[in-house]
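Structure tokens please, single chain.
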Amino acid sequence: MVGLKVTVRVPATTANLGPGFDCLGMALGLYNSITVWVTKGGLDVRIEGQGATDLRWGEENRVLRAIRAAFEEAGERLPGLLVELQNHIPLGRGLGSSAAATVGGLVAANALCDNVLSIQQLLRLATKLEGHPDNVAPAFLGGLVIVVQDEGQLAYDRIPAPPDLEAALFVPQFSMPTAEARKVLPHQISRNDAVYNLGRVALLVAAFAKGNYDFLDIATRDRLHQPYREVIFPAMPALFNAAREAGALGVFLSGAGSTILALCRGNAPEVTQAMAETGQKLSIVGQAMVVPLTSQGAEATVTKPPRERQRQRGTEDHW
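Here you go.
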């Protein structure tokens, strides 16, 4: 329907949360906005904000790829579209920018198709496009999400975001692409390291479920990926220590990096300042920010063309 508009707001996400490698993710109150208009023909993408000069504008744009995948899954013909992106999530910093693009495109397309696709179908499509579900699941669902793949199926559960916690972020100027950050990981790990992380994942999920933060510092520590990624980011331990000394409840590398995320209750500005000052001493240029955790995943708002709204009002008046 020419003139139909869908606007999607999709949150940033953080993955792993320290020990939960590829199985834990959480939504953050930092958002990208995607607006899609149905037009008479052709596909056009316009980008403002983060990545405006770097992202692909043509048909290989991640949002368009997701939209096309959703229309194919729904068995619908792809109409002409104008897509406008307002990006606030930093790129390549471990805050789920690519997941937000994929999820936003899928949610927008599903809204245009009268929401015929289930959340399971959308999650499967998003995981196929992204390669792993730990960022896309919280982008869809909000909150803290535990998600695992089992014989091609996704099993997941969600815990609402604690309203009294905030995320203190230090976002370095340099990026850490996921593919590069995975190359430094070992192919095998010791039993001790596996047990170390398993216990901390369980403790972390329990802390969020019960609102008991006494052990968050222990629960967010890791031996599977962060120590190896120090090869790429040698300043990581110093930034972790700065956050802890400033009163952070727990601190970890967000996704594959390069963002450092500290969980805080009431003292997030002090923690961000401590990380920024440490970064400055180590010649790490970065941006410090405080964002809330959020239990709200991607949201779509549909606006019908003026003529259609007028026709519906006329029908309602008739009855």
